[in-house]
UniProtKB/TrEMBL annotation:
GO molecular function ontology, one term from the record: ATP hydrolysis activity
Name of the featured protein: ATP-binding cassette domain-containing protein
The keyword ATP-binding is annotated on this UniProt entry: yes
Record organism: Streptomyces sp. SID7499
Keyword terms, alphabetized: ATP-binding, Nucleotide-binding
Keyword Thylakoid: no
InterPro entries referenced in this protein's UniProt entry, alphabetically: ABC_transporter-like_ATP-bd, P-loop_NTPase
Domain ABC transporter: 1-35
Length: 90
C-alpha cells in the first residue's frame, strides 16, 4: 500500500513504452502484464497544440476560478481594444 518505485534506464531503453503498457495505453507484443489496485498517470504531453500552461490549469480549476479568469479576459479585451475609451475608464 502506497509503495513507490523508480524506473531507471538509458534513453531509448523502453521506460516510457513499459509505463504505457502498464497504464493500458499500449498492448504488450508478448508476455502478460497485471497490476492490482489503482494507478495514477500524468502524461508528458497533455495540452492541445497552442495551449498555454494557463489554459491547462484553467481546464481543471474550480468553476469560480474559471469565471474569474473569463472576467479578466473580458477586461483585457476591453482595455486592449483602444476603441471604447468610456469603457476603458469605467
Amino acid at each position: 500500500e502506497g509503495a513507490k518505485a523508480a524506473l531507471i534506464g538509458a534513453n531509448g531503453s523502453g521506460k516510457t513504452t513499459l509505463l504505457r503498457i502498464i497504464a493500458g495505453d499500449l498492448a504488450a507484443h508478448s508476455g502478460a502484464v497485471s497490476r492490482g489496485g489503482s494507478l495514477g498517470v500524468m502524461r508528458q504531453f497533455i495540452a492541445r497544440e497552442g495551449d498555454q500552461v494557463r489554459d491547462l490549469l484553467l481546464s481543471v480549476a474550480d468553476p469560480r476560478i474559471r469565471r474569474a479568469a473569463a472576467a479578466v479576459d473580458t477586461a483585457e479585451a476591453v482595455l486592449g481594444s483602444g476603441t471604447d475609451t468610456k469603457a476603458q475608464m469605467a
